Amino acid sequence: MVQFEYNKSIQEYTTFGVPVKAELFCTFSSVTELKEILSDKRVENKPQLILGGGSNMLFTKNFEGVVLKNEILGKTTLKETEKEVFIQVGAGENWHEFVLHCVSKNLGGIENLSLIPGNVGASPMQNIGAYGVEIKDVFSSLQALNLQTLEIEEFENEDCNFGYRESIFKNTHKGKYIITSVTFRLQKEPVFNTSYGAIEAQLNTMGVTEPSVKAISDAVIAIRTSKLPDPKEIGNAGSFFKNPVIDKKSFEVLLDKFPSIAHYPQPDGKEKIAAGWLIDQLGWKGKTIGEYGVHKNQALVLVNYGESEGRDIYNLSSEIIDSVKETYGIELEREVNIY
Ligand code: EPU
């Protein structure tokens, strides 16, 4: 029997930790339980929100509707070939624990994505990425419940329209499916991706000459720990904004005015601009207002030091967007989902 809770605080279920409540709250640990909840009269016609690790969301008000917390666990090896292992993972599994599981088995592919907060189910939604690797590079397929038909459907890599922090689950399919499991394709003889500057430097510092799955994971953990706040200690949701991608012409105009601008050339000729650099240059880094502000080591990350309201953090993000627009003519987009 599924248990509903009314007027439930969900503060502890999001990494920002802002004080908000859900009208109705319920957890599910299997597809059967999920179907049972969705067929229940009490949730009918109510707005629904799926919570995974709560690491990429900011609530600016109480949620009038039902919050469903995905706790589907399990790791199953579906297929093994000479070079690859296909592992199906329950959407409610913690992402970093799954990375460590693969590292312990010396399976390569997701070591660069160590220590990203959140659950497995959310990883394909926004095609999580770091240090030159994105989930799409190791994604095989996923299973999701169609909220209209209550049937499980399978999505292959090419069905998901992965882009930079994008997939169909954030666009055309938003709110229409609940991801229940994800299958990853891991490598027994991995090709390492250490080209991202900070990794090479960190491996050198650690005295590593032969990279391994474990060494790269350790290097990424060290870099992230030094730069990004631990959500267990300081409320945050990682990068609050996306890095904007602009066309070559606009970029050249910008480069002329700001020669030291941090940027990454894209395969299609466009340029990705480091939003952290733009925000930092405008003096926002480390700025604190009451109990919230901009992180002292990474200007892309907004932080909640205590009991701040989501609305205040949201307003700060609007001020940052306005100031970046005024100086650089670039409109930053929020990466974090706002409710
Ligand atoms: N920079 C500054 N000041 C800052 C922050 C950055 O000048 O306060 C400059 C850095 O010096 C560097 C450049 O901006 O030249 C890029 O910074 P960084 O390497 O920290 O990466 P990022 O582009 O800011 C992205 C992802 C992160 C991911 C890192 C590493 C986005 C929105 N963010 O950040 O992802 O960990 O690359 O690959 O794409 C997340 O999505 O939550 C996240 C943390």
Give a list of the ligands.
uridine-diphosphate-2(N-acetylglucosaminyl) butyric acid
Instruction: Note the overall shape.
Output: globular
Helix content: 10-25%
Number of helices: 7
Q: Kindly report how far apart the N and C termini lie.
A: 29 Å
Radius of gyration: 20 Å
Along the chain, the helix and strand elements come as EEHEEEEEHEEEEEHHEEHEEHEEEHE
Total E-strand runs: 20
Number of structural units classed as domains:
3
Strands in their spatial order, largest beta sheet:
6-7-12-10-11
Uncertain runs are none
- Mean pLDDT, all residues: 96
Known CATH architecture of the largest domain: 2-Layer Sandwich
Strand content: 25-35%
Largest sheet: 5 strands, antiparallel
CATH class of the largest domain: Alpha Beta
Class by SSE composition: alpha+beta
CATH fold type of the largest domain: Uridine Diphospho-n-acetylenolpyruvylglucosamine Reductase, domain 3
Which tags fit this structure?
339 residues, alpha+beta, Uridine Diphospho-n-acetylenolpyruvylglucosamine Reductase, domain 1, 3 domains, 5-stranded antiparallel β-sheet, globular, binds uridine-diphosphate-2(N-acetylglucosaminyl) butyric acid
